[in-house]
DNA sequence: AGGAACGTTGACAGCGCTACCAGCAACGAC
DNA sequence: GTCGTTGCTGGTAGCGCTGTCAACGTTCCT
């Protein structure tokens, strides 16, 4: 019905095709698979599109092709520093690809996750990134039935839905405790907050290491379901100290807690590391600048997000990785807070010790 | 032809309508404007949809209605704590509404912002949230031509595109400096990183306050374009101290820098606040737990994001706010790092002083 | 009583794009 | 020379939904 030159002056594929002197379908192909066109038509369509300032209509494309170019991402928290690094990795990888990111926050609730998953799946995403390996049975079933690639991030486990990228929190915690053992520490406390599955596995790693050395005592463990914070680190450490005044080290489930412990020690004039050693988890930026500098377990958060999104996009485009489960490992970054002698002289400007000793371990081999 | 019972067994609006015994268009209306239906049909459609587990196809809806239910959000950084709070506010507000969030990262580049804006606008978003008031001329023109509501967040300025929510960074900086004056400080340094427009305006506020008191000296200002970090705070403070050993206070453009300054002081055994007072900006959680507790300018980041998204959604739905520009103000939270006497005894557990004195100021009245 | 106004419903015709299949030329194999 | 085969192109027919308009019954007004 005389549908040329749409009233609102919008540029449709048909206009581009007309200007290029090809059929709409050929123009369409140019945007999806340029190699399928002859060079002549390819350049004609390209310049026509540029001249008209054509922008494809994603809704029409999604409707016609029965699939979207959206990657769904489900993470438990928007505030946690850990996830902001992961997210940045994901967004960086998605840029330049034709996929866009649809982000949702499960607030550490697997029921909420299930609900969001249902929502996402109904829109037929091109791919999905989900956090962790602890889904509801229902969620798990939906993921397995989904006809798109899926990456589980943050940790690795025995039974991937599809792809998986992360590291073993259990092994990482064991390595942290092993480091403290090496430094001659015996009464090592554990401080944890939120107690999501990954923190729980860090606790498990700590417990197993302590039990292996016949040093485990329940009262050395202080945890809470409350979301983590520096202030909470102060409070939990105070609790721990009240239970066990002879403590000679604390392994904190994350760096915020470690910073809180550091502050609380300073407040109580407890010498670090002479009286108590501190080890954190994640190696956030400030750990290297604290006084004393704080030992932590470095995790590759940005890389985790970036690789996950990259792998996912490759899989969507039909190039599945040969290795669907990727262990990114971790490193214990040894700093002053847990090493008995301050061997290095104070650096000129920043508190970062230039001579951080690193203990690198690929996780996953128990 | 014969398009009933789509092959893949997918539930379309037509199936719902058939089961409910109404026409598809009536069923469609149920999802968009239930009040337009008679009670009888409303309940019939509702139960039919529930029975079939109908989920609307957003792509088809977008194509047919020529508009999407996507709110575009442009922020400069995914890593910065400040923005993660804002984002959380935005996502929280979008939940429960029918709008979904499309997030993109401008990396503090207004050119990148322009590019993303073009991309977003091409998809006809339902609304847009952009950061700050410094857009390129081109971006500004696009925003003004856009036929959707727009909220500028993070700061307020004279000439809103549409709606605006934030506070005056200039006034907030002046208030921070005024507080230091009150405490008898005179040689007040400024430490800033990244120097995005908002940090620049904090610097402007600092400069004007110092000039008003005839205390401004260029060498009191240390800034860098480098992204902010705690480590950078250490380094910049060291620079500042080298230039001006008689310093008696530092105003840091954000809390990470302030923490770095704190650590560097500890490293150099500079007494806080006796020798040097520290004031940060944003009042991140850890400021209340540091030793000594750190004074900061509290900003309502979560509320900013939440209110912005709420206002935007209201505006999309046709209920424009009577007051399109909202000043959320700020508060100088006075803590030990800038108050001369430690009047409060040590709290039992956390470092947070229970008796934080607050100076609240609605910004915007110079 | 006649007609306007309203509330409710449905038919029709796309929205802009792509899946599918058919067509055609050019090429090599038999 | 005939028959595939490959590479490129185009026509047709929707994808699932909603905008528009018309039609209907009911109520309210004059």
UniProtKB/TrEMBL annotation, chains A, B:
Entry protein name: Transcriptional regulator
Organism this protein belongs to: Bradyrhizobium nanningense
Region annotated Disordered, chain positions: 337-366
Annotated HTH lacI-type domain residues: 11-65
Lineage of source species: Bacteria, Pseudomonadati, Pseudomonadota, Alphaproteobacteria, Hyphomicrobiales
GO molecular function: DNA-binding transcription factor activity; transcription cis-regulatory region binding
Keywords carried by this UniProt record: DNA-binding, Transcription, Transcription regulation
Stored SUPFAM superfamilies: lambda repressor-like DNA-binding domains (SSF47413), Periplasmic binding protein-like I (SSF53822)
Stored CDD domains: HTH_LacI, PBP1_GntR
Transcription regulation is among the record's keywords: yes
InterPro entries in alphabetical order: HTH_LacI, LacI/GalR-like_sensor, Lambda_DNA-bd_dom_sf, Peripla_BP_I
């Amino acid at each position: 019905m005389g549908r040329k030159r749409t009233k609102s002056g919008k540029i449709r594929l048909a206009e581009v095709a007309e200007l290029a002197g090809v059929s709409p379908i050929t123009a369409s192909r140019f945007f999806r698979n340029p190699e399928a066109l002859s060079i002549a038509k390819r350049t004609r369509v390209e310049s026509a599109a540029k001249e008209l300032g054509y922008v494809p209509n994603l809704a029409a494309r999604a409707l016609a092709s029965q699939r979207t170019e959206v990657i769904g991402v489900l993470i438990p928290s928007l505030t946690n520093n850990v996830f902001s690094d992961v997210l940045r990795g994901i967004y960086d990888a998605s840029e330049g690809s034709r996929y866009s990111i649809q982000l949702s926050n499960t607030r550490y609730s697997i029921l909420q996750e299930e609900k969001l998953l249902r929502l996402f799946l109904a829109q037929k995403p091109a791919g999905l990134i989900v956090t962790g390996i602890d889904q509801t049975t229902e969620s798990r079933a939906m993921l397995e039935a989904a006809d798109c690639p899926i990456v589980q991030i943050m940790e690795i486990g025995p039974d991937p839905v599809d792809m998986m990228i992360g590291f073993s929190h259990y092994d990482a915690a064991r390595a942290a405790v092993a480091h403290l053992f090496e430094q001659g520490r015996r009464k090592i406390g554990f401080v944890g907050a939120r107690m999501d599955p990954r923190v729980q596995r860090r606790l498990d790693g700590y417990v197993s290491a302590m039990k292996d050395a016949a040093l485990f005592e329940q009262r050395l463990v202080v945890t809470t379901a409350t979301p983590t914070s520096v202030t909470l680190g102060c409070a939990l450490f105070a609790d721990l100290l009240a239970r066990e005044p002879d403590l000679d080290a604390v392994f904190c489930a994350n760096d915020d807690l470690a910073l809180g412990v550091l502050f609380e020690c300073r407040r109580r004039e407890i010498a670090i590391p002479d009286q108590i050693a501190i080890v954190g988890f994640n190696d956030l930026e400030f750990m290297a600048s604290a006084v004393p500098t704080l030992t932590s377990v470095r995790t590759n958060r940005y890389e985790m997000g970036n690789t996950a999104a990259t792998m996912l996009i490759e899989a969507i485009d039909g190039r599945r990785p040969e290795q669907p489960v990727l262990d990114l490992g971790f490193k214990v970054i040894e700093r002053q807070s847990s090493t008995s002698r301050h061997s290095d002289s104070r650096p000129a400007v920043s508190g970062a010790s230039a001579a951080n000793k690193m203990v690198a371990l690929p996780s996953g081999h128990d």
